[in-house]
Amino acid sequence: MTTPSDEASDIDVDVVVLGAGFTGVYLLKRLRELGFTVRAFEAGSDVGGTWYWNRYPGARCDSEISVYNFSERFNPELAQTWKWSERFPSQPEMYSYLRHAVDSTGLRDLITFDTRVTSAVFDEHRDLWTVTTDSGEALRSRYFVPAVGPLSKPNIPSFDGQDQFTGEIYHTARMPADFDMAGRRLAVIGSGATAVQIVPIAASSAQHVYQLQRTASHCLPGRNHRLDADDYAEIAENRGAIWTRARENPVGQPYAESLGELATFDSERQREIMEMFWNIGGLTLCFASFSDLLTNADANRVVLDFLGEKIRGIVRDPDTAEKLTPKTFFLTKRPPIEHGYYEAFNRDNVSLIDIRENPIDSLVPNGIKLLNGDVLDVDVVLLATGFDALTGGLTDIDIRGVGGESLADHFRERYDSYLGISVSGYPNMFIAYSGPQSPAVLSNGPTLIEEHGEWIVNALTWLRERQIARVDVRLAAQEKFTQHNAEVVAATLIPQTDSWWTGANIEGKKRGFPTFTEGVPAYLDVLRKASDGYQDYDLTPS
Ligand code: NA7
């Protein structure tokens, strides 16, 4: 629904959304419902975002499925009728769900696929964005909403001699759909959540799997299982309460509150608690157990020792077990959820290569040469090397704000933003779930995605009602918000560990943990206050 001034400025649509993953799809639905004209651009050939791109063998959701989907806010019928098959569904199921979500709500026509947005430039005289695509289309919109996802730009390292390698090499987020590992010799570089999902699956069909590990992960058992009639009944009966609990939970999961500081329990009880959550599986040991794991090194070490003991109990070769035992603080990087990862190292066709001890020298025609001269004969190299997180998907686009300032330059120098949604000097732009300073990386995705979606559509509605042509967050508010986040983060153990959370995985990237770490409920409170009259924004009427 365009306003009179929009007509005068000749916009093509009210809103351009970038990306058709969970976030983009949620926004399209809600914006259309509220009468905004909207177009989305998606680089992939279909919807799904993460669940479109990550089709590596073993790809699976590792957040609780009761809240890893759209709530009834998106579409009550979808929430009530879709039946998930497992606690942690696999990529094909996640992908089907998102396709169904789009098709059953008639959103597909709003999305232009196979199209990358190359630039978005704010016209400060007419208060609109011109969004240009790699197909040469230029669209003018009042609002620009990047929803590109925090993990959309693959980190693709290159190795000496790579062009000599005669086998296949893929980043795990860019694999062909029909990739077949049967009988092949595989190297998996990296040992984060992706590699941890691939290795056990690969082990069951590949001739040999080399896992090249630089840093051991804190893997937790997933305890995935099929959902039965009782599970469905429980979810159906409690759907509203489950979502409420997730919104009231620090990490957006449907978990009860953590039990308290570790030291308030004697060592026997500590042990029982850790065993209990180890058996429940998923992320419960991180987020439902002790409240001080990120602030108390001693408490953290107790859980770390417990993990080491568990690994030694599973992995038969003591040297391999020792290498797989994480040395960095628990929860200072994203713990992978595993299904048979540690057990895989008991097989003859799986080898762990510690590339911190013996780094990759180069690729050679028949495989990977290590610094000590050993050559791993492989047909396929999988780069499970992660992503240029939080900012990579945004800085790849030439986004220009007031005075032609570049958002890529901004994020190269600092991670300042307001709420993770607005950046001063980039009026009428609302970043959804993708940028720095929100709790995105510490929250169940859809919990936060829906909150960002609601906040943004409410803001646009409020602005439309008041015929505001330009909305730009004040620099002082942005600095205060960013500074506060930095102070909170500094009191945690997170900055002590190199990870994609801190930007340490990308050479030359500025370090930091640009994340709101006080938890989802506190963040939602901040969002509520921020939308009360939008007092931290400069508002320019039409
Ligand atoms: P991650 O968690 O960033 O893991 C990437 C892994 O790749 C990690 O073990 C890295 O080692 C390793 N890595 C990165 N670059 C290199 C190079 N150049 N050489 C060797 N090893 C390298 O990404 P994932 O895809 O596994 O998971 C991403 C998220 O998706 C996950 O957290 C969930 O939220 C879902 P490092 O630890 O840096 O030493």
Q: Keyphrases for this structure?
A:
542 residues; alpha/beta; five-stranded parallel sheet; globular
What does this structure look like?
It is a single chain. This protein is of the alpha/beta class. It has a 7-stranded mixed sheet, covered by helices on one side. It has a 5-stranded parallel sheet with strand order 7-16-8-9-12, covered by helices on one side. Helix 2 runs parallel beside helix 15. Bound molecules: ligand NA7. Ligand NA7 binds next to helix 6.
SSE topology sketch:
Elements lengths: L3 H6 L3 E6 L3 H12 L4 E4 L8 H4 L22 H6 L9 H14 L6 E2 L4 E7 L4 E6 L4 E9 L21 E4 L13 E5 L3 H13 L2 E6 L6 E2 L7 H19 L19 H14 L3 H4 L9 H18 L3 H7 L12 E2 L2 H4 L5 E5 L5 E5 L2 E4 L4 E3 L2 E4 L8 H4 L2 E3 L6 H7 L31 H21 L2 E6 L1 H16 L29 H11 L6 E5 L1
Parallel strand pairs: 1-2, 1-6, 2-3, 4-17, 7-16, 8-9, 8-16, 9-12, 10-11
Antiparallel strand pairs: 4-5, 5-6, 13-14, 14-15, 18-19
Helix pairs in contact: 2-15, 10-11
The protein binds ligand NA7.
